[in-house]
Specification:
- The structure is a single chain.
- By secondary structure, the chain is an alpha/beta fold.
- It has a single domain, classed as Carbon-nitrogen hydrolase (Nitrilase/N-carbamoyl-D-aminoacid amidohydrolase, 4-Layer Sandwich), CATH 3.60.110.
- It is 29% helix and 30% strand.
- A six-stranded mixed sheet has the order 5-4-3-2-1-16. Strands 8-9-10-11-14-15 form a six-stranded mixed sheet, covered by helices on one side.
- Helix 6 links the parallel strand 10 and strand 11.
- Helix 1 runs parallel beside helix 3.
- The longest helix has 19 residues.
- The chain starts with a strand and ends with a helix.
Length: 274
Amino acid sequence: MRAALIQLSSTLDIDRNLATCRRLAEAAAEARADWILFPENAPFLGADEEKLPIAETIDGPQVQAFSDMARDLNAFVTLGSFAEKSPDPGRTLNTQVHFRPDGSIAAIYRKIHLFDVTVDGDLSFRESDSVYPGEEIVTTTVDDRSGAPHTVGLTICYDLRFPELYRELRARDAEALTVPSAFTLNTGRAHWHALLKARAIENQCYVLAPNQTGHHYGRRYSYGQSAIYDPWGQSVAIAPDRECFVLADLDFDYVAEIRADLPVFAHRRVQDLL
């Protein structure tokens, strides 16, 4: 199957962001993409305190816009994340939604690991102040062109630094892993490709990582370089530094071949020694 990563420079303007998503998704579909993936915060990327007023439920218009894309383009669509209303009235959820080609929802994943860090010396992020953490590990499926289903593990951005999550997704038979992100400029320069490549090699999975790029507001910049890594750890697509999409063909027979030749998952012993 052919996957397309949509790279965005999302802002506070939801209408503008959704229009860009639609335009790039249509172009990817014209290039015969079967699966179209968007980055974290695709419909809106603003400061933490600005999330609450625009948060919606799963049946709101932001999610509906991506459901419509899936149906109209006859493609699997993964909305990297949007701000979902949460049980805590003072916080949102950072929620990924995966759609089937008929527009129906196949899976919902809510970000588990929250980005509470300081970068560039004095630029702080405290995602837990405004985001309610998810509590469920989620897999779903995509169908290749023969109609065969393949298991996909869902993650978001900062999750990438927690390999135990990806190990569990691999244990649940994931063949591909999503990592929609808004990786900051500084951390992206240092760690983005190294972490993506490591998760691909460790778990012998495709890793699909659509990222935000460029300037969003104030001092908030994202690294870009949306990337797809194959289960041998080779990059098969890397986006240039602008809003765009990149394509790669996913060969799930190749996943099975690598796992048969190098059966590292069957050789694990540490879990039996703990």
